[in-house]
Design goal:
This protein is an alpha+beta fold. The protein contains eleven helices and 13 strands. Helix content is 52%, strand content 16%. A hairpin with a 5-residue loop joins strand 9 and strand 10. Helix 2 runs parallel beside helix 3, helix 7 runs antiparallel to helix 8 and helix 9 runs parallel beside helix 10. Bound molecules: adenosine-5'-diphosphate. The site of adenosine-5'-diphosphate has 23 residues, from helix 10 and helix 11.
Length: 445
């Protein structure tokens, strides 16, 4: 408060100084009283002028951009200038902090996997993140302040906005440019709206696959169950001769076996999906694998085919022996089932140039037409007229083979010519195979 006392006494001190000086000059001029008056007025006027000049400088700074320092004049106006400048700097800093917080907040929303759109009370776009821009085909800069319904014209979205029905999400069907979107609108603040969008194409596809799978399983189980129920009714209601009874029982047994096979394959698939990837350091001899499936293939063929196995004794595969046996078993069972009597079936191991290996099952059977090949490993996909069901097929064998191959870092390849035969190859990458000299321990099939 030093300036206050100085300011209070400055005019008084100037007046006193003026009085004294005026008195001295006045007495010399012959009128002391006039000298006192003029002297006091001149000195007080000088103080007031200096004050006005300082105020003027401050006012000029305030009217301008207020950049740089305020005029440092000392005294009352100096104190005012200092206070104003300090308040200004504090406001600027608070504003800077706010801006930084807003920037961080927006970059947080920008990182969201969902689209975020902020609308003002008139439904103009205030802000949108890159995901929302991509979902709705917006330009995040050019389209700001545009009315949202001019840019997003999907009827479901527009009517949701107009009716204010924000409880349920809106579904926007996919198009050539984008997938299916689920859009949620949430009102906030004073009439403003938050629009959240999510691409649910993948989720919908998985959901459709799940529905198809459940429908297929239900159908596959219902068919043998209906047949069994029919036979049971026949047995209960009709007096059958012994040969007829034996025939019905055999057919019932066939259906039970079919259901059994289906459930076993479903369990295998569930296990494959639910267990961790096979270890990369548990080595299984390929010779042992081929030996273990040979007996089953011969039994299934019952001498109707010529079946040849290569020994594969110098190779080992890193992985799960049960899974590999299941894959090989499925390929061989298919070869037997889809190869007419007298045909030839071979199961072999081959090294590939890149250091990987191939387990190969080839037959001279009915073959598969080219148009079926892309879908052959889908669950429950069967080639019409292939007699899959009649030969006890579940439609899941190749799905299991594909799964096993993928879990071992490999893939399944098929070459086939209708009427000439098929070759199925289970390709394994170099990291999953190695050569070995010693003979393998036999594996239980
Ligand atoms: P399925 O239990 O019906 O054999 P898979 O998944 O093992 O089911 O095979 C799918 C379909 O692929 C079969 O229904 C059959 O039409 C065809 N297929 C599989 N292997 C062969 C093969 N070696 N020769 C001809 N067709 C085959």
């Amino acid at each position: 408060m030093a300036w206050l006392s100085l300011r209070d006494i400055a005019p008084a001190a100037a007046a006193v100084a003026g009085v004294l000086l005026g008195a001295a000059v006045g007495s010399m001029a012959g009128s002391q009283a006039l000298g006192v008056l003029v002297g006091a007025a001149v000195f007080v006027g000088a103080v007031a002028l200096r004050d006005a000049l300082q105020a003027q400088r401050l006012l000029k700074w305030l009217r301008g951009s207020m950049e740089g320092r305020a005029p440092r004049t000392g005294g009352f106006w100096g104190e005012v200038a200092y206070r104003v400048e300090r308040a200004l700097r504090l406001r600027e800093k608070a504003l800077g902090d706010e801006r930084e917080r807003l920037r961080q907040f927006l970059s947080g929303i920008e990182a969201s996997p969902n689209g975020v759109l902020l609308l003002d009370a008139q439904e103009h776009i205030e802000w949108c993140n890159a995901v929302a821009a991509q979902h709705f085909g917006l330009d995040p800069h050019r389209d700001l302040q545009q009315r949202v319904t001019n840019l997003i014209r999907a009827p479901a979205f527009v009517s949701c906005l107009q009716e204010g029905a924000f409880d349920e999400p809106v579904l926007l069907p996919g198009s050539a440019e984008r997938g299916t979107l689920q859009v949620l609108i949430r009102p906030y603040g004073d009439g403003m709206k938050l629009v959240l969008s999510q691409d649910i194409t993948e989720r919908e596809r998985a959901e459709a696959m799940r529905r198809d799978f459940v429908a297929n399983v239900s159908h596959e189980i219902r068919t043998p169950l209906t047949v069994l129920a029919g036979f049971l009714e026949t047995l209960a209601q009709l007096p059958l001769s012994e040969p007829e009874r034996q025939r019905v029982l055999a057919l019932m047994q066939q259906q039970t076996t079919r259901m059994h096979a289906l459930v076993a394959d479903l369990l295998t698939l569930a296990q494959l999906e639910g267990s961790p990837q096979p270890a990369g350091d548990r080595w299984v001899g390929v010779g042992s694998l081929l030996d273990a499936v040979r007996a089953d293939a011969l039994a299934l063929s019952a001498g109707r085919h010529r079946i040849e196995f290569s020994d594969g004794a110098d190779a080992e595969v890193a992985g799960n022996d049960r899974e590999l046996l299941s894959a090989l078993g499925n390929l061989l069972a298919n070869a037997v089932r889809y190869t007419p009597e007298g045909g030839r079936i071979t199961a072999a191991w081959r090294w590939r140039d890149d250091g990987g290996g191939v387990l190969e099952v080839a037959d001279t059977g009915i073959g598969i037409a080219r148009e079926h090949l892309p879908r052959i490993t889908e669950r429950f996909y069967r080639v019409e007229g292939s007699r899959s069901r009649e030969t006890g097929g579940t439609g899941l064998g190749l799905a299991i083979v594909k799964h096993v191959a993928q879990r071992h870092g490999g893939e399944v390849q098929v070459d086939s010519e209708p009427g000439l035969g098929s070759t199925f190859r289970l390709l394994l990458p170099p990291g999953r195979v190695r050569r070995r000299a010693a003979s393998n321990e036999p594996l239980a099939a």
